[in-house]
Specification:
The structure is a homotetramer. By secondary structure, the first copy, chain A, is an alpha/beta fold. Chain A has 13 helices and eleven strands. Chain A has a domain of 218 residues: 3-Layer(aba) Sandwich (Deoxyhypusine Synthase). In chain A, 46% of the residues lie in helices and 17% in strands. Chains A and B meet through helix 5, strand 4, helix 9, strand 8 and helix 10 of A and helix 5, strand 4, helix 9, strand 8 and helix 10 of B.
């Protein structure tokens, strides 16, 4: 077979074998190398480099309703293994993380149902996941108790508030991050059930959450990083907050991986290509970057299994 | 033609005529009534009812990079005409609104270009819109001056900070909202160039922005509303912050229109159906709600032209 | 305002006015010029040039379930006005065109319903359009009668078969095309209710439909065209069949407009960029081409109204 | 933990382990059970039932540019293992299957390139896959030779033509199908490079390809099936042709799995839910059906690896 110079490597037709590991499957996707399957394999390569670069600070962005879908376990595991240095999340993911950590569950439901009937049954729906209102009763107890333990008259940053919550939990993202000393940022904390609980609490207490108090610490971390990498599950506030944080430094991110189901042509940040971020200097000119366009409930577990397999093989 | 009872109205094949108005076109889409074209027509019907209900409080959510795409002019116009009572925006849209208001422009570029070359030319890209760095120089001057006018040691809410900015501008969303007394909320203000400017300012000044200080006012507005309507351009924080604000009241929203290019099956809030919001009580059980799945740079102008045409016809 | 040389024209914030025409709205989208709204305006510009180029042969591709959604009326109108020289359609659109032409209707239903209940009610669903089985009873009568009029033992091309059907109808796409002498191609005719009816007919008759008999005529048209333009609603077989037809000539298409809701990164032809078609030579190197990513039930009527307004203004 | 009766099973947070098999990963997705990750796991369950039902006839639909992306190898393997009884494909996939089978290759390229430069280099692009023109030179030789071996004056069905091609090849989809006696249907064969080659051939030869000659055999297969299952990669003609083929029988499909990146709300068949097919009777009322919305270059290999692992475990 003559391979023209201008072309790359040949596409190898995928061979699947019964019992193949997730890592072997991703290797096969890489040898095929096309569309989002190929991008996924390249993203695993890049993630591996990011995680094995001893000079890199690893940022992790968590958007989309990932915890209700069972993806929080992987984030907690990555925190436990030391693969996340800075976490930025939506308020919703942290709300659902608390709900799981206090012993409540989300349930496998269906998207094909009457939401009015669910309302009558006191069940909240997140696509095909069900969450009974009862969970929010327990959540309210936990949150109000946790908030009440804050010193009256104090001023906290959002990250400090979240570390306080994490210190009172034993499992999950906030708990693991607190135990490992990983800061968790959540710029739009008001926009969540945690925020509504805080509104309740603030009707009778005076603890100030300073919206901007987290920025100096986060930006110092950026200024101090030799190299920085970003792994972004979904877009939204976490993606932008992570990417903009490097804007003030002379460097941009050196590594970036993005898992999203959105599309670039609508102009929104969530679907924007990582190349676009180069024009702003959020990514370094020569940064390695891969976007995988697909549902992260498929791509994130597959990629995590594959990258852990590779890291273990290296250390084996 | 015999129309079976079980079926609805017949689909009328669309007839377009040279010179037809936007309103007449939307009426034709309504008589066809299928897919997102039909949804768009039903959404205009619903928006009209929302705007002519004298008891309704009208919330407006603005996400996606809409101002760089020229959609901010419509929002300012709706504010001017009194069709928005509460505005919730991303920080990015407000940043770009300030940029336009201080006399800088966004440019029609292309998505098909080298972002590294753009970086060298000091041009930032938002899909196919270009924004020269020079605009951010002027933006910094304006912001630092505006922030410097805040009393040292004071504590403000985000909405108060934005009203302060709006009072120093003459055109655009923030200026019009300030002049009309419409509150503008932006829970994730840190996650924007306004946030980065504030970080700069806060290195030498002490003005506290209390992240939660806006919630009592917003929720009081919700408790006081006889009926509430939401018009949501894009999802993100504005969508959730608006919808969750009614969660604490006994009512949910009575009207809701959503323009989004996202999809429901990924589980994220931005693409979630409005029906899902009924299970949570964010929408009232019997609420009227329509989602139009398409790029809002097409649907929003068409719908705005059509609804203004109808309102004028009513008052003519 | 200083406009940097490297940038294009400034984005003009959209102003909508009550009573503005579809054409004026599209002009405003063009002055904003961003994302798919901007693309739509550029596509109208291009379509206008294609329709006013006296040397151009105009191909029109019709995929997606457009006739059930009421978009067939616009296609018939474009045929009537002489704006389509060659039409390529899916079998489904032609099936539904016949159904409308014989006096049956599609109905505005809902996508939120029980399909099992619909089955019991003998109603077929196309997203939110309902079609009672009764229509297929009449359809069968019409088709069997029409087929029976074909000379036993004859050999026809698919285009000849469709022209025969069109000659027996008075309104709609097939009828108008037949009256105007515009050939209608449908490579996958078997894949439709027309195909199933033919299977029924062929159990007792012997008329051969030669799958390839249309290609010489189509390709001769391509060889003879000074310039060729393609307007593609949806992708599928019509898009590829039109684009590949120019592959054998030395030219590619000089103009191409594509309306699609699909996305490029999945590798499928329906969502592929028109640039990709340049590498194959389906489009000429310097061809003008615009894709509008959105639901065609919104974009197609808006664009048709705008382009007809412009053509009338020229001739006014 | 108290599980409310109305809810289903709890969402189990996903645990990934280094070295876990593809099957174990899919099992973990199934225990989480949400969004498309959950759908993928349910689809593997269903595919397994379909493949182990001794009474079921298994239809397989292949649309999208899957062979250039390396997915053809899996289809050939499924044919080899006896997991496909009837195959319906687009012409493009068969064209690229022939290209691989005659020893040419597709190459891993990039979507971020100049298509005009590619044109000058005689390279054709399919998203990020490159295919040199040289391959089409060899393809032409093979096709013309193969066509020339057909008896002058004969009449063939498309399936017979494809079986003839398959009998002259040694590897790939057509070759394996021919060797295993699995019929391959391709209603829109004209709409492909095979079609263009046939047009060339037909300029000097007289072999008639009867467009409808395949339908009796296909429909007899449907009438004779105790139960039928459909596995659909992509939509397009293969999806509809497979689903409509059961329409004439009293049963519909009993099993259906669909992998697609399209969306339902645009009304097109490719993104349509399988529920919609119940209203038509294409699926039986009680049919088991799952759609996985994501790029098939990720989902198809993962699902194939998982289902083969399960089948081997059963027989182990």
């Amino acid at each position: 077979m003559i391979i023209p110079m201008e072309c790359g490597e040949p596409v190898r037709q995928v061979e699947v074998r019964p019992g193949m590991t997730a890592g072997a499957l991703v290797d096969a996707l890489g040898r095929a190398g096309a569309y989002n399957g190929g991008a996924l394999a390249r993203a695993v390569d890049l993630w591996e480099r990011m995680l094995t670069d001893p000079e890199a600070v690893r940022f992790f962005g968590l958007a989309g309703a990932m915890v209700p879908a069972g993806m929080g376990g992987i984030v907690a595991d990555l925190l436990e293994r030391g693969h996340i240095d800075v976490l930025v999340s939506t308020g919703a993911n942290l709300t659902h993380d608390v709900i799981e950590a206090i012993g409540c569950a989300h349930y496998r439901g269906t998207a094909d149902c009457s939401d009015v009937a669910l309302r009558h049954d006191e069940i909240n729906r997140i696509y095909d996941v069900f969450l009974p209102n009862a969970a929010f009763v327990r959540f309210e107890e936990f949150m109000q108790e946790a908030f009440a333990a804050l010193p009256e008259g104090s001023v906290l940053s959002i990250q400090e508030l979240l570390a306080h919550l994490g210190s009172r939990l034993e499992t999950g993202i906030l708990a693991t991050a607190a135990r490992k000393g990983v800061p968790v940022y959540c710029p739009a904390i008001q926009d969540s059930m945690i925020g509504l609980q805080y509104w309740l609490f603030a009707q009778t207490h005076r603890v100030t959450i300073d919206a901007f108090r987290d920025m100096p610490g986060l930006l110092d971390r950026c200024f101090g990083a030799e190299r920085a990498g970003a792994f972004l599950v979904g877009g939204g506030v976490p993606k932008n907050y992570i990417l903009q944080s490097m804007l003030m430094t002379e460097n941009g991110f050196a590594y970036a991986v993005q898992l999203t189901g959105d599309r670039p042509d609508l102009g929104g940040l969530s679907g924007a290509t990582l190349d676009e971020a180069r024009s702003w200097g959020k990514l370094a000119e020569g940064a390695e970057a891969v976007t995988v366009y697909a549902d992260a409930t498929i791509t994130f577990p597959l990629m995590a299994a594959a990258v852990l397999e590779r890291l273990e093989a290296q250390h084996g």
